[in-house]
Amino acid sequence: MIFHDYYSDVPRAEVDRFVQSQELARLITVGDDAIPHVGLYPFLYDEKSLDLHLVRSDEQIKDLKVRPRCVLEVDEVLAVIPSYWVHPEYGGSATAYHRTVIFECEARVAEDPEAVAAQQRRLLARYQPEGGFRPLDPADPLYRGAMAQLAAVRLEIRRWRAKFKLGQNRPAEARRRVIAELRKRGRPSDGRAAEALQWTIDGREERPGNA
Predict the structure, then answer these.
(1) N or C: which end of the chain has fewer CB within 10 A?
(2) Which residue from 99, 103, 101 is spatially nearest to 76, judged by alpha carbons?
(3) Per-state percent for the chain, helix, strand, coil, to nearest 5
(4) Would you say domain 5-169 falls under CATH 2.30.110.10?
(5) Which tens digits make up the pLDDT trace of 15-38?
(6) Cβ-Cβ contacts under 8 Å for 206 (sequence gap 6 or more)
(7) Where does residue 68 rank: exposed (0-12), middle (13-18), buried (19+ CB within 10 A)?
(8) How far, in Å, CA of 113 to CA of 156, rounded?
(9) Which three-class secondary structure state does DSSP give residue 128?
(10) Does residue 197 carry a pLDDT above 50?
(11) What pTM does this model have?
(12) pLDDT confidence band for 204 (50 / 70 / 90)
């Protein structure tokens, strides 16, 4: 992936807001044969680290124990548009819009049932804050078996990069035309795509010297 400045100039606060709004992230590890492995997981994020859990027998746990350097990717696919929304003849104007954040990390794997249970409580607090479950105790027979099979993974963030590909390479007027077409087309994610493109216009106009 190439990170042009006009796609990557995203305020850190907006990156954090976006990451917190997503529910799943892709973990990329490398196996003994140098082949990457990919998994999709719920996660916790606090701007300095990320938490997720895997089954201890997962190939990615084996990877992380040998090679703790890894990548976690959070993305949102928004829309693919036809070329004629941008240019009446040039087919190369067809494009896709997405928001992507890539974290380069160093992993620590914990298999102690108390550590796993503590992480599970934090995950449940994020994904199921309303409760509706018995308090999680690794000594409870209801949970003991699962706690013995899971590993808690903490990813310390060493570097991050963002790419919000939202038409910033086009003039604002061209983006406004695309926004109108997205709203007219009305596919399930077109409204979110239109809002994302509008953000690139509003944010630019609000910056000093761009009013």
Answers:
(1) C
(2) 99
(3) 40, 30, 30
(4) yes
(5) 999 999 999 999 999 999 999 999
(6) none
(7) middle
(8) 21
(9) coil
(10) yes
(11) 0.90
(12) low
> Where would I find the beta strands (DSSP E) of the chain?
25-30, 36-41, 44-45, 49-55, 69-81, 95-110, 150-165
Q: How far apart are CA 62 and CA 38, in angstroms?
A: 13
Let me know how long the chain is. Answer: 211
CA end-to-end span of the chain: 32
- The secondary structure element, H or E, covering residue 64 is helix 59-66
CA distance 74 to 154: 16
Q: Can you give the residue ranges of every domain in the chain? A: 5-169
d(CA 86, CA 94): 8
pLDDT at 194 exceeding the cut of 80: yes
Alpha carbon distance 36, 56 (integer Å): 18
The SS3 assignment for 124 reads helix
Q: Work out the number of other CB atoms within 10 angstroms of the CB of residue 149.
A: 12
